[in-house]
Amino acid sequence: MAVENTKVVVIGAGVMGHGIAQAFAQGGCQVSLVDVSEDILEKASKLITSSLETMVAERFLDRTVKEVMDSLSFTTSLEEAAPNADFAIEVINENVESKKEIFSQLDALCPPKTILASNTSYLNIFDFEETSRPDKMIITHYYAPPQLIPLVDVVGGPKTSKATLDAMVGLLRQIGKRPLLLKKYIPGYAVNRMQRAMHREVHYLIDNDYLTPEQLDEAVQVGLAFRMMVVGVFGRYDFAGISTRTRHPPGFEEVPVDYHYRKHGELIKKGHLGVKAGRGFYDYAGKTEEEVYRERDVRLIEMARTLKKLQQRGPLGKVYK
Q1: Among residues 110, 123, 126, 119, which one has the least CA distance to residue 92?
Q2: What is the dihedral of CA 172, 178, 184, 190, to 10 degrees?
Q3: Which structural domains are found in the chain, ordered by start?
Q4: Roughly what angle, to the nearest 10 degrees, separates helices 38-57 and 17-26?
Q5: How far apart, in whole angstroms, are the C-alpha atoms of residue 3 and residue 102?
Q6: CB-hemisphere CA count at 13 Å for 192?
Q7: In the predicted model, is pLDDT for residue 252 greater than 90?
Q8: Residue 137: in which H helix or E strand, if any?
Q9: Mean of the per-residue pLDDT values of the chain
Q10: Chain centroid to CA 203: how far?
């Protein structure tokens, strides 16, 4: 289906909902944003308009604000929005009963073709949804601000069809997103689970007066995130060289102390020790070690230029004392 003919209903116009609606609208879809409150819808419209104006001013969007806003409608009537939907995405509060109720309404109001999606952060909807279309139930988890962050977690349940997964992934790619299709459900998906571990560590460091919040933010921006933008997580292992140490270091109580990294150990047994060996988590066959390092460095230099521009603009807020 052509993206301009795709009808998307977003239920919930709060912090995430209005941004998700904007993402689909600026991608070319026809979008209905539904909420129980006229005031919330009015606020959502203003926030979307402001965001689009910023994108146009920064030459990030090749459509006008009016063109995108014309693709959006705002309503308090789910009965009005749902009947023609190709995709319906709920972005309501994280409550099992509330989500069961909205899915029940959507199941009754939407045509049989409609794929029903949830933006839930940590609820396994497949454990409690009671619809007549389990094959068309799916999780699509976005990151704030969803109109700018490319990543979307996509998770199917035990009865979700391949056709549903393919349709959702295809639509997300059409609107410029980078869908991450998980093999099965896990609370928090990938990024939120990694952020949870970081959350624990950064608060430990500030609570015990090792560093200030602004020092930690700088460390992440000019060190961790800077490098991750080029090599990611597993690419970093390849460049550092995959070591023989596979035990989890002490102090990380959430992982058993005798836990061994299975994939890591398998690579070591095969002699796949990273860039220096021509293969690690990634395959560098056909390139010399110098060529791989050169390509990495070219990308890091581009990141350094971008970082310099951002630093010249100063921090987003003042340091709180």
Answers
A1: 119
A2: -140
A3: 3-181 (3.40.50.720), 192-312 (no CATH)
A4: 50
A5: 25
A6: 13
A7: no
A8: strand 137-142
A9: 93
A10: 23
User: Both tokens of residue 51?
Assistant: 């965001």
Q: What is the three-class DSSP state of 8? A: strand
Burial (CB count within 10 angstroms: exposed 0-12, middle 13-18, buried 19+), residue 256? exposed
What's phi and psi for 73, nearest 5 deg? -130, 150
How far apart (Å, rounded) are the C-alpha atoms in residues 297 and 289?
A: 12
pLDDT of 51-72, one tens digit each? 999 999 999 999 999 999 999 9
Q: How far apart are CA 139 and CA 149, in angstroms?
A: 17
Residues 6+ apart with CB under 8 A from 25: 31, 48, 68, 69, 71, 72
Q: Are 52 and 61 in contact (CB under 8 A)?
A: yes
The two most distant CA atoms of the chain are separated, in Å, by: 62
Encoded tokens for 303: 């990141």
Q: Left if phi > 0, otherwise alpha if psi is -120 to 50, otherwise beta: which for 287?
A: beta
Residue type (1 letter), 300 = L
* Alpha-carbon span 25 to 242, nearest angstrom: 44
Q: Which residues pair with 224 in a beta bridge?
A: none
Mapped to the 3 state alphabet, what secondary structure does 139-159 carry? Answer: EEEECCCCCCCCEEEEEECCC
Task: Report the predicted TM-score, pTM, of the whole model to 2 decimal places.
Answer: 0.89
Per-residue pLDDT, averaged over 220-244, amounts to 91
Residue 221 in tokens: 């921006």
Report helix, strand or coil for 211: coil
Q: What is the DSSP string of 277-300?
A: GTBSSSB-TTS-HHHHHHHHHHHH
Amino acid identity of residue 278, one-letter, is G
Residue indicated by tokens 């929005």: 81
Per-residue CA distances from 270 to 240, 264, 288 (Å)? 17, 10, 20
Question: Taking the CA atoms of the chain, what radius of gyration do you get in angstroms?
Answer: 23
In this predicted structure, the answer to whether residue 166 has a pLDDT above a threshold of 60 is yes
Cβ neighbours of 33 (radius 10 Å): 28
The DSSP code for 222 is I
How many residues are present in the chain?
Answer: 321
